[in-house]
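target protein:
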Amino acid sequence: MCLGIPGQIVEITDATRLMAIADISGVRREVSVACVATPDLSDLIGEWALIHVGFAMSVIDEGEAEKTLEALRGLGEAQETLEAMAQGDAALHTPAERVAS
């Protein structure tokens, strides 16, 4: 399964190589925009795209980006909850039981 994370294209860094800076939840990364390139790359500035392993895979609208980011935040919260539950369960066992499991 591939996971695309929404990022906003904020700058074209190398038009020849089709590279740009994407802001992904406050973290800026250089990404390839080859898959979403337009004749005038500056048209991509301000656009949202799904970013996967350094590539902008598709342009999405801002509403879709917000929904996806919210879902990803929810998954992160669910993971934290599961980890907390596992730690709580481990605390119920004696040290010998923890080694055996």
